[in-house]
Amino acid sequence: MELNPRVRPPIRKFAGPVGTLEALFEHPADSPRAVMIFGHPHPLHGGTMHTKVVYRAAKTLLALGCGVLRFNFRGVGASEGRWDDGRGEQDDFVAGIELAATTYPGVDLWAGGFSFGAWIALCRGVADPRITTLLAIAPPVGRYDFTDVATSQKPMHFIHGGVDELIPVAQMRAQYEKISAPKTLTVIDGANHLFDGKVAEVGDVIRARFEVRAEEQS
Question: Taking the model in full, what pTM does it have?
């Protein structure tokens, strides 16, 4: 199979604050409309950049013309370092933002994540002026501090499972009410925290929220 010469080869590692971070930075065939930096679920509970929801989100955004950087936090997979209770993992995410910004200067940067990774992405995304849009899938509200997230006026899109056993949807709705506009919340009926059997629907929601419509292109 002949490779498209316009497509950059994926980046599979980059320098983090405490060592090399294993990554998969994929690029669309044409200049990206945006670049998404995406965080994975909790490292101590099996979360990696290959978790099904992370994979689906990345592939959906890539199909929509975005560059997508997903990576393993320190101590996960081949990433160097060790678990740092969320502090160092936020620094890892900032390193990912830096890589995206230097790879595609001037292109919109988005921050996203799933579960623990959603909290990391939201915290670093609202703090960094280069991030313009945020995506949070099953964020662990009630378990971490979302104070700065609530007061940010950056566009935020939330996706949550209707029967999430770890973060009840009522808790998500309560936090959502505290979030400043612009914002959206999509609840997927029958989905648990890992979206077992519902991963494709996560992709559908992302596509609906982020696709470029004809009227926006004209």
Answer: 0.94
